[in-house]
Amino acid sequence: MNKFLLPTLLLSATAFTILPNQAQSVKKTSIQQTFSWTNISLALLSKKPPIQPRKGGSRDPIFICMISPDAPTERRIVWSDHPTFIWKGSVQKIAVRIAGSHEDTWSKNVVGMQSTNYTGKALQPGQTYDWLVFENESPKKSVPFQVMDVQERDRVTTYLNSLENQRKTKKVDNEAIALAKASYFVQNQLWVDALQQVYSVEKPSGELAQIRQEIPDKLCNSQ
């Protein structure tokens, strides 16, 4: 049985074992041994960024770019059962539905916002959901995503808890913990979860704040 490697105190750049049942193609990601938000940004915003936002066509008069969860060829696998939704454009409401359903599992008015956390009942492992954005009460676009199955989630959760406990023992701040988690997610190409860590810090450093400002423009303007 493949398992994630336990964290080292320095988070070495050795590639982690990849989830065996992940429903998307996974490749190793090159990242420098000394992790920083700049390195995370380089991985997310490369010339061929791994994030594939869902954008409107050239004839769509309303620009909405759904950044995360995104829309690669195969649906995105997500570890978090309370993901962060990130977009660019004028959106009145977002909603989450079980795939194929016409009833909202959760919804939120988001006028003036460009990101928000899912705050509903925990999403179920193995279940596929649709994330929808609304403008004038009509759904404009949707993106499917799937929560990891329970065994994979448990392995990732065990790793993250160990990582967080190690860093709390060293009395590091929340941003350092978020960086360590983001680095782990990048190495395993769990891009939605990596972006969630980027947006999770309440009072970000100057470096992190700058990256947050760059992400929507660079990803939504990319091919």
Would you give an account of this structure?
It is a single chain. The chain has helices at 37-44, 150-169, 174-187, 191-198, 206-221; strands spanning 54-55, 64-68, 76-78, 84-89, 93-98, 106-109, 115-117, 128-135, 138-147. With 223 residues, the chain is an alpha+beta fold. It folds into two domains: 45-49 and 149-221, no CATH class; 54-147, Immunoglobulin-like (Sandwich). The strands form two sheets. It has a five-stranded mixed sheet with strand order 3-9-8-5-6, with helices on one face. The radius of gyration is 17 Å and the shape is globular.
The major β-sheet equals:
5 strands, mixed
Task: Tally the structural domains.
Answer: 2
- What is the total tally of β strands? 9
The CATH class label of the largest domain is Mainly Beta
Structural class: alpha+beta
* CA-CA gap between termini: 38 Å
Q: Given the C-alpha coordinates, what overall shape results?
A: globular
- Biggest sheet, spatial arrangement of strands: 3-9-8-5-6
Radius of gyration: 17 Å
Oligomer: single chain
Helix content: 25-40%
CATH topology of the largest domain: Immunoglobulin-like
Helix-strand string:
HEEEEEEEEEHHHH
Corresponding CATH architecture of the largest domain:
Sandwich
**Average of pLDDT:** 84
**Which strand-content bin applies to the residues?**
15-25%
Q: Low-confidence stretches at least 5 residues in length (pLDDT < 50)?
A: 1-33
Number of helices: 5
